[in-house]
Amino acid sequence: MNHEIEDILKGENIVRAIKARRIRWYGHLKRMEKNKHARKITEWNPDNNRSRGRPKIRWEDQVRKDLSKLDIQEWSKKIQDRTQWKEIVEQAKTYRQL
């Protein structure tokens, strides 16, 4: 129900909340060891040929697009510093154009 979701979010914008959590998870994935299943799945590249037409938008591409909207430079280095990445996630929660 909508009122239950609003109670959980406490007036927070749902789209920004989802994008901020997606950015938070992306940082978690990139800090994971390479042998973990979640990281293997996100970095897996299928061997078969793609179908014709426009390529599908990948989850990682959307996260990178959100990071570029936030004007985050050298995010691959900032991911390794948890406190700095937490600040980026907090910035994503309040950024209006995201």
Describe this structure in words.
With about 100 residues, the protein is mainly α. The model has no long low-confidence stretch (mean pLDDT about 85). Helix content is about 60%, strand content about 0%.
**Whole-number average pLDDT?**
87
Instruction: Give helix and strand order, one letter per element, not per position.
Output: HHHHHH
* Strand content range: under 5%
Structural class: mainly alpha
Principal-axis shape: globular
> How is the main sheet built?
none
Number of strands: 0
Instruction: Point out poorly predicted stretches.
Output: none
Q: How many separate helices?
A: 6
**Gyration radius, in Å:** 16 Å
Helix share, percent: 55-70%
What is the first-to-last residue Cα distance? Answer: 25 Å
Protein name: Endonuclease-reverse transcriptase
Organism: Zophobas morio
